[in-house]
Write a structure and sequence with these properties.
Elements: H1 2-29, H2 40-55, H3 66-87, H4 94-130
Length: 131
């Protein structure tokens, strides 16, 4: 049961990041977002691919060295990003590749900062108990 909860957590976190990024990109790339009509299947594809990208986070919980887990996560993320682009009939060009790289780097940075904050909090709690 615990594994299902963890998998669901990864999936929902991925969907959250995907939804935020999707809305930001729509807001930045469309001049008049008030007239924007996005097909429901495109949104569904973004959610599913984003959730699957979130599932790839399990790589960081394996015995792989961090560097290799990051490389495999990046490759898997790019494959799922490409699948999403193809299924939605969106163009993959230098601009979308640049958006992918920048987005991946920003999300990676956010997650690293959150992890470091959690580590500092845990270390403070350990010091309180031992001190």
């Amino acid at each position: 049961m615990k594994n299902w909860r963890k998998a669901l957590d990864y999936f929902m976190t991925g969907m959250g990041f995907g939804a935020i990024i999707y809305l930001v990109i729509l807001g930045v790339t469309y001049e008049n977002i008030g007239d924007l009509r996005v097909p429901l299947n495109s949104v569904f594809i973004v959610f599913v691919c984003s959730g699957l990208i979130g599932e790839l986070s399990f790589l960081f919980k394996t015995s792989l060295p961090y560097f290799w887990a990051l490389i495999l996560h990046l490759i898997g993320t790019f494959v799922l990003f490409s699948v999403m682009m193809l299924l939605n009939h969106w163009v993959i060009d230098w601009q979308t590749l640049l958006i992918f790289v920048i987005t991946y780097a920003i999300i990676w940075l956010i997650i690293r900062l959150i992890q470091e904050k959690d580590i500092r909090r845990i270390n403070r709690q350990i010091k309180k108990r031992n001190g």
